[in-house]
Amino acid sequence: MKIRLIRSATILLEYAGKKFIIDPYLAAKHTMPSYTGKSLNPLVELPCEPFQVIAGIDMAIISHLHSDHFDPTAQRLLPTNLLILCQPGDESEIKAVGFQSVVPIIDQITWENIEIIRTACQHGSGEVLQEMGAASGFIFKNENEPTVYWAGDTIWCKAVDNTISQVKPSIIITHSCGAVWGDNIPIVMDAKQTVKVCLAAPTSTIIATHMESLDHTTISRECLRKYAEANGIRVEQLLIPSDGETYHFDC
């Protein structure tokens, strides 16, 4: 099994002999609008050419339709006959931009011997949560692979805690940049909340992603590492990949 961070929330997952992309955000540096007025997005280039990112993929998962998770460049470059899995309610918009094989996951599906379970997210709080709308995470299971929980765009919340305690995933992928919206309301995990994940899942490997790519983030990779170490989290438990970095895992 391989997990490669491309940039921001975009992941390539090779799992049970299949290769798929999660939340493709393939725009060139500074070609997308700012979220805060600080800078155009994304802040950095992809680690390779977009066509190399999507080469050989079997399927895509779109967790929600925010522009940093499914951008116009990805919509243009992905094959229109590619299987796309999404959360209920997003399928019509994805089909509207030309994709022919779009399947919403209500609870779970089995695809090519891989069980894919949709999980709840809390993409902010208060009025900001209403503005952000629904987002989803996903669990991946196969008898020959470690169980992976990709938490998605969420803060630490009861749904995340319950998923960890019930599923006991071997690998948890978090969005840990501390992005904020409105009156500095967190919409994904920051360093403190990422450490909560580590403490809630002491035998799991946590992979912190969605970092240093957008202008509404508040936590750097260095900041997260320092905070984690100060709170007793081992380097081996909390992985903080650079863009383009790949991890290999055995069952």
UniProtKB/TrEMBL annotation:
Organism name: Desulfosporosinus fructosivorans
Name of the protein: MBL fold metallo-hydrolase
Domain of life of the source: Bacteria
A Pfam family: Lactamase_B_2
GO molecular function, one term: hydrolase activity
UniProt xrefs under InterPro entries: Metallo-B-lactamas (IPR001279), RibonucZ/Hydroxyglut_hydro (IPR036866), UPF0173_UPF0282_UlaG_hydrolase (IPR050114)
SUPFAM superfamilies assigned to the protein according to its UniProt record, in alphabetical order: Metallo-hydrolase/oxidoreductase (SSF56281)
Domain Metallo-beta-lactamase: 27-211
